[in-house]
Structures are given as structure tokens and as C-alpha cells.
Amino acid sequence: MVKLSKSEKMFETARKYLPGGVSSPVRAIKPYPFYTKEASGSHIIDVDGNSYIDYCLAYGPAIFGHAHPLLKEAIEKQLDKGWIYGTPTEIEFSLAERIASLYPSIDMLRFVSTGTEATMSAIRAARGFTGKNKFIKIEGGFHGAHDAVLVKAGSGASTLGKPDSLGIPEDFTKHTLQVPFNDIEAMADLITSNDDIAAVILEPVMGNVGPILPEDGYLQEVRKLTEENNVLLIFDEVITGFRLAMGGAQEYYGVTPDMTTLGKIIGGGLPIGIFGGKREIIEMIAPSGSVYQAGTFSGHPLSIAAGHAAIDIMKAENIHSKLNSTGDMMRSRLSEILDDKKLDYSVSGVSSMFKIFFGENPLNYQDVLKCDKEGYLRFFHRMLDQGIFLPPSQFETNFLSIAHTEDDLERTFEAYEKCLQ
Ligand SMILES: *Cc1c(COP(=O)(O)O)cnc(C)c1O
Fold first, then answer.
1. Does residue 236's CB lie within 6 angstroms of at least one atom of ligand 1?
2. Cβ of 392 below 6 Å from ligand 1
3. What is the DSSP letter of 286?
4. Is residue 205 part of a domain?
5. Within this chain, do residues 248 and 325 fall inside the same structural domain, yes or no?
6. Which of the listed residues 315, 347, 372 is the one where a domain comes to its end?
7. Would you say residue 60 lies in a domain?
8. Are residues 11 and 79 in the same domain?
9. For residue 17, what are the CA distances in angstroms to 13, 24, 26?
10. Within 10 A of 99 (CB to CB), how many other CB atoms are there?
11. Are 250 and 214 a contacting pair, CB within 8 Å?
12. What is the residue-level pLDDT of the chain in tens, covering all 421 positions?
């Protein structure tokens, strides 16, 4: 058993000042989380001195591992020049130019500080551009923590969205409609029976209850359906952007949405969000248009400098082909382990996203609910004892970084062998 006495004590104090002792709910671990002292490469080290191989990777951003020297250098260089101006900079529009060249769906974009802001603003832009009120999201799809997207799952496609949190008036979610992932008929029924739908927003690979992959042709059919019915298609690529490929899931699957949201990886570990798309849509944003959007920290020089460095490293090291083959290897080794043990669990994933579902490979959110959540949590704790940090929930995706070594992977497989039962 790893010793966590300092973390346990810290939790007692932290919970007096922070709800649940954490700053974001996914970070809560029962009975208490480990508190992190530092992190480097593939390892995260807690205040008790335990070192873990990290497959949580801050829930997605740390694709280079922790404290990558080139990212650090880029941030330090910017620090010397000051780090907040409240005026436009050259590095801002040159990063926009680089992103636009990698994402054919993006002619123009706005920088914001989080993925939440990105999806909130993208939906506002879609409504402003189309003059329509409703939008469709996928059941179990996660687009951050703003009012319109926090709707209850399972209420049926045609009913009005119901808030999934206290503090959100029903009026704020009644324009949010939901359909199951990988169900093109449900989406077609909804779109063709309703003429007030501005947009469909979806994660091309569901990452926050997944990974759940799109079935062959699903994304293409969604593209066709939305196009034919004058509904905008927004790909929320906050996880998949710069992870499945430089050009995200839209490059990987060859489907071009009207708008795209990005975040996580492209800040090099610093806060960032991006929404972009067709010129005529994004030109609607203030000050060039009448869809209002603003932010004190938008285009923060440190995040932008780190974003440039992130693209530089991805290009120089050709990280995606490496990560994709490591991911393939990871998934096939895990499948072998499951076969050996005759466990009817399943391995899911694509590229550097992976996970064992304690149940059948899901096609949608309702399928994930059938998995053994409690069993997964017990497994999570056994892995932590072996020095492997997986996300503490059956719902969260595990990630690979370029910092994971062969030795890390071998140790990880040994731990899976030991802990799966
Ligand atoms: C993480 C995430 C968000 C929210 O991003 P934040 O930076 O946490 O606000 C939105 N969409 C998806 C798909 C995400 O994974």
C-alpha cells in the first residue's frame, strides 16, 4: 500500500476551504485525493513522495508529459517580456494563422481561456448566425460547465432539456435537445421535425464518458444531414484536437464541420480555449459583428507562446504517428490480458486515447451506464497502489503522452496483470 498520510492531513484542511477539498469535481478521489507536489515527464509525485506513472495527464492537455523543456523555455522567454498586456499581439494572430492552416474548417477564430467558454461562445455564434434558438447535443456529451449544456441524460430526444444541476432555471435548458451517440435516425427525426435548430454540437470521439468511437460513417452522415437541413455542425475537439492528428478528429475521420472548438493540448498546459469556423460565421463576433464575446485573459501571452511551442514540438517530433502506434500497442496488450484472464471487459480507444470498460464496448452513454462503476473504482485504487495513476472514474478517458517510456509501459502492463481480477 502506498502511504498517503500527508495527503490525508492536507485533505482535512483543504475541505474546509475548497468544496470537497478540490478545485474541480473530477479531481475528488474517495476517501481523499493525493495532493501533488510536482510532476515531470510521465510521472506525477505526491506530497508523501509517491511517484505514479500518469495516464490521467490533467484530463488531456499534457500530451508532451509534464514540464517539457521546450515548453518551459517558451514560457520563460515570454515571462521576460511581461505576461499580460490587454492589447493585441503578433504571436496571437500568427498562432491563429497556423491553426487555420491545420484545420480546414477554421477560416477565423477567437481565443478564449477555457473549453467551457469556447463551446458557450460557439453555440452563441451559431444562434446569432442562423437566427435559430435550439441546438442538439449528444446524450452524455460534455462541453464544459455552462448552463445550456448541463442537461440531464435520459429524458428522451423530443422533450425539452432538463437542468442537470441545481441553480439552472429550466428556461435556460429548454432549447437544448439530446440524442444518443451513433444513432443517425434519432438525429434525423429531430432535425427534420424541428425548424428552430441552429446547430448540432458533438465530440467526434466521446471523451468524457469514453472513449466511445463513432461507428463507420456516422460522422459523415451527421455532416450530410446537418448540411441538407441548414443546421450548423460544431465539432467539440477540446480533447481530440491536436490529439488524434495535428488537424484533430476532423482530419482523422475526414469530416469537415462548420465550426470547431479547441482547448486542452493547444495551450501547452496553460489555460486556453478556441472557437473558430467559417469566415461568415466568425465575422459575426464582436467587434466585427453583433454576437458579443469578450475576456480579460483571452489570448493570454503565456498560453499563446506555449501554443506556438506545442505546434513546433508536434511537428518536429512527428508525435501523432508515434502516439498512434503506442496506442495500438497499448490496446492490443490490454486485450490480451483480458483474454488471458477470461474477463468479459472491453478495451476501447483510438490514437492515444484508451480505456478498459468494465462491461461491453459501449456505443453510447446508456451503454456506459451498464458498466461496473464500483468494480472500476476498486481497480483504480489497486492500480494507484502499484504506482499507476489512471483517471479515478469509469467515465474518464486514459491518455498517453510522448513522455511515456517503454519501461513505463512494461511496468503498466505488469500492474494491469496484477490488478485486474
Ligand atoms: C474539457 C472539455 C471541455 C471544457 O474545457 P475546460 O477547459 O475544462 O472548460 C469542453 N469540451 C470537451 C470535449 C472537453 O473535454
1. yes
2. no
3. T
4. yes
5. no
6. 315
7. no
8. no
9. 7, 13, 17
10. 23
11. no
12. 688 999 999 999 999 999 999 999 999 999 999 999 999 999 999 999 999 999 999 999 999 999 999 999 999 999 999 999 999 999 999 999 999 999 999 999 999 999 999 999 999 999 999 999 999 999 999 999 999 999 998 755 556 789 999 999 999 999 999 999 999 999 999 999 999 999 999 999 999 998 999 999 999 999 999 999 999 999 999 999 999 999 999 999 999 999 999 999 999 999 999 999 999 999 999 999 999 999 999 999 999 999 999 999 999 999 999 999 999 999 999 999 999 999 999 999 999 999 999 999 999 999 999 999 999 999 999 999 999 999 998 889 999 999 999 999 999 999 999 999 8
